């Protein structure tokens, strides 16, 4: 069977689109988090490490408490704590945001393995821990609709949470005081300060929100379908969120579409693993497509800017 | 006499080290049943034998290369992590040429190093070109490209170079000519260290003694001024990342020929991430890179010995590393101390 046929056959399966939402979920949650901190003027490079730590904490807490939801709270709290450390260095000690983020990522990749070994005596995965998974949800009426039911119903509870958060974040930026303050602080801290917005406090809140959403993404990775923590399991999703966030340019709905694009590629990659395309090319595809999408987006923005300038010049 | 600024830098550096060491000792006491053995090996292990001591020099080689590469990129005010892909692909190129070509002694390593540096430079240019022409963020694209080139490397090794009888992921053996000799027998201290030092000297001259280096420094410290004074900033962005990529690619070649007889990097060794701390500790000054690399390599070798001889794992190093990066770069860390010191000096001046 030709490669094109294989791809077409995959694209006709409802399960494929189900998997697309599944793969997109952690990136979507992180993208929303990245968007909030980025709109407040701080680029949060520590997302990758935050997600890893949260994934780890979620598994450990759920294993010891024997409650998936307490584990989930642990993961979100871990995201909150990590972003507090980051905020302390960036906002209090005037550190460079990128470098502090890299430091936290370094800490996360080694620290999680260090503690995993202390608890289980293994370095690779938490297989020996009796950790729990968060449930999946079937939507009563939707599940009976052919095709659509198979795509949209039965997802993990955090997938739905992510989709709801898209609306929440969109609403927050558009209609709430906090959202407007975050935007004001990000666009011009001096102007925001002059009208009495507490700039540091807003930036702090934005970083905390981004950490907590990334914590949810971590919980999805380790307590979603897999049900265990393995070292380095985030596999660059925190970095991908930086790219999808950039494409979204502050719009939560575009952020969702960009995350779904990643989910599409990842899911296609999973389906094509046994095809005639070499495995490594399939593995690199999601990263490559995101680079291309991001570059095209930036080129378009630049093009429009130039066009506007030309028009303005011609108008004169 | 030392100026307050210099004194401040040194005191702050020492404090950061103090915090990192205190924290690691505290962690060891908290988790270990044999804390004394662990601490002894971590801090003094590398001094126990000639072999271990020179292992520190050998382990510092890739760190010197990535520290130089990252330092140069940081100096120009950019944040590309593409050195990771450059070093990895440089190593893959080395494996290919070390297996598939036959060249005389001494010529073989030189040809390989040139090829790896060229490929590294080429890869290094990609995020820079995208930044200049499409206004993408070089950090974002370089992080993605690191995965792309990692998988490309794995593909090439499995497809063209793999040793099917090895049982694990490994290439065929390198030819004997494609190897850098040892400087001291019985140790891993190899010729690559001298090449690394040569790179340090070249980069120092480039950054501090040439017109291009001046442009790099100005672009990094004052981009607006650089633009208005007629420096072609696009050229600086591209050239620094090409040079940094070439240095990292060369590092991949040197590491492979100095330490390995076949390619077995199934995971990226991520020396570029270590390069970040080297660049920061050295203040992006090539002259200080070998010392910073020596320090990190020392702790690494110590940590390996610790994990072998006690119950504490060597991932402790990443905790030390993170704490160091955080405190060394925290601008306002101990700012109060500096202020008091300056006030004291001012008062004395008046008296």
Structure description:
The complex is a heterodimer of chains A (316) and B (351). Chain A has helices at residues 3-11, 14-39, 47-65, 68-92, 97-120, 148-152, 157-175, 177-187, 189-194, 199-223, 237-248, 252-271, 279-315. Chain A is mainly alpha-helical and 316 residues long. Chain A has one domain: ABC transporter involved in vitamin B12 uptake, BtuC (Orthogonal Bundle), CATH 1.10.3470. The mean pLDDT of chain A is 89. Chain B is an all-alpha fold. Chain B has 2 domains: 1-32 and 312-351, no CATH class; 52-310, Orthogonal Bundle (ABC transporter involved in vitamin B12 uptake, BtuC), CATH 1.10.3470. Helix content of chain B is 74%, strand content 0%. Chain B has helices spanning 4-31, 35-44, 50-75, 83-100, 107-134, 138-161, 192-209, 211-221, 223-228, 233-259, 271-281, 289-309, 316-329, 335-350. In chain B, helix 3 packs across helix 11. The longest helix of chain B is centred in the first third of the chain and has 28 residues, at 4-31. The chains are: A mainly alpha (316), B mainly alpha (351). Chain A binds chain B through residues 45, 89, 92-96, 98-100, 102-107, 109-111, 113-114, 117-118, 123, 236, 239-240, 242-243, 246, 278-281, 283-284, 287-288, 290-291, 294-295, 298-299, 301-302, and chain B through 31, 79, 130, 133-137, 139-141, 143-145, 147-148, 151-152, 154-155, 158-159, 273, 276-277, 280, 313, 315-319, 321-323, 325-326, 329-333.
């Amino acid at each position: 069977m030709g490669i094109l046929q294989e791809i077409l056959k995959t694209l006709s399966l409802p399960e494929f689109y189900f998997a697309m939402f599944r793969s997109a979920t952690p990136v979507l949650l992180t993208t929303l988090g990245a968007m909030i901190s980025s709109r407040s003027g701080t680029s949060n490079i520590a997302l990758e490490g935050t997600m890893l730590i949260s994934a780890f904490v979620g598994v450990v807490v759920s294993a010891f408490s024997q409650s998936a939801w307490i584990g989930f709270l642990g993961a979100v709290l871990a995201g909150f704590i990590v972003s507090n450390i980051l905020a302390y260095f960036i906002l209090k000690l005037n550190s460079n945001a990128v470098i502090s983020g890299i430091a936290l990522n370094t800490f996360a990749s080694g620290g999680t393995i260090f503690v995993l070994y202390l608890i289980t005596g293994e370095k690779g995965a938490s297989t020996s821990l009796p950790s729990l998974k968060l449930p999946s949800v079937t939507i009563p009426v939707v599940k009976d609709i052919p095709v659509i039911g198979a795509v949209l119903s039965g997802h993990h509870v955090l997938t739905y949470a992510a989709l709801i958060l898209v609306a929440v974040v969109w609403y927050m930026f558009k209609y709430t005081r906090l959202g407007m303050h975050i935007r004001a602080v990000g666009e011009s801290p001096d102007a925001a300060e002059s009208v009495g917005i507490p700039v540091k406090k807003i930036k702090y809140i934005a970083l905390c929100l981004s950490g907590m959403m990334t914590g949810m993404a971590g919980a999805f990775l380790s307590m979603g379908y897999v049900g265990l923590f393995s070292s380095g399991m985030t596999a660059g999703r925190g970095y991908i969120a930086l790219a999808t966030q950039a494409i979204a340019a502050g719009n939560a709905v575009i952020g969702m579409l960009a995350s779904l694009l990643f989910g599409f590629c990842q899911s296609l990659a999973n389906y094509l693993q046994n095809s005639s395309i070499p495995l490594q090319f399939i593995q690199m595809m999601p990263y490559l497509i995101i680079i291309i999408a991001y570059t095209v987006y930036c080129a378009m923005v630049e093009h429009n800017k130039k066009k506007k300038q030309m028009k303005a010049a011609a108008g004169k | 006499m030392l100026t307050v600024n210099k004194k401040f830098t040194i005191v702050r550096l020492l404090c950061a080290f103090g915090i990192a060491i205190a924290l690691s000792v505290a962690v060891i006491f908290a988790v270990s049943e044999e804390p004394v053995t662990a601490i002894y090996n971590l801090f003094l292990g590398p001094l126990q034998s000639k072999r271990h001591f020179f292992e520190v020099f050998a382990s510092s080689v890739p760190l010197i290369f990535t520290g130089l590469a990252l330092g140069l990129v940081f100096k120009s005010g950019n944040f590309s992590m593409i050195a990771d892909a450059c070093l990895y692909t440089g190593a893959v190129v080395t494996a290919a040429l070390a297996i598939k070509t036959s060249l005389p002694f001494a010529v073989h390593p030189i040809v390989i190093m040139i090829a790896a540096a060229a490929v590294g430079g080429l890869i290094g240019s990609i995020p820079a070109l995208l930044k200049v022409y499409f206004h993408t963020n070089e950090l974002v694209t370089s992080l993605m490209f690191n995965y792309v080139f990692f998988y490309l490397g794995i593909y090439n090794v499995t497809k063209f170079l793999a040793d099917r009888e090895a049982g694990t992921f490994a290439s065929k053996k390198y030819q004997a000519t494609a190897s850098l000799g040892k400087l001291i027998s019985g140790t891993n201290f190899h010729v690559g260290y001298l090449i690394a030092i040569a790179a340090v000297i070249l980069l120092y001259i480039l950054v501090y003694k040439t017109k291009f280096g001046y442009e790099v420094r100005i672009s990094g410290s004052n981009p607006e001024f650089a633009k208005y004074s007629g420096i072609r900033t696009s050229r600086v962005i591209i050239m620094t990342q090409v040079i940094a990529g070439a240095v990292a690619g060369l590092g991949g070649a040197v590491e492979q020929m100095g330490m390995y007889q076949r390619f077995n990097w199934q995971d990226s060794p991520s020396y570029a991430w270590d390069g970040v701390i080297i660049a920061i500790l050295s203040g992006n000054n090539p002259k200080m890179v070998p010392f910073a690399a020596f320090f990190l390599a020392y702790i690494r070798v110590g940590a390996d010995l610790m994990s072998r001889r006690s119950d504490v794992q060597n991932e402790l190093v990443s905790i030390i590393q993170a704490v160091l990066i955080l405190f060394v770069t925290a601008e306002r860390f101990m700012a109060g101390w500096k202020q008091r010191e300056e006030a004291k000096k001012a008062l004395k001046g008046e008296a």
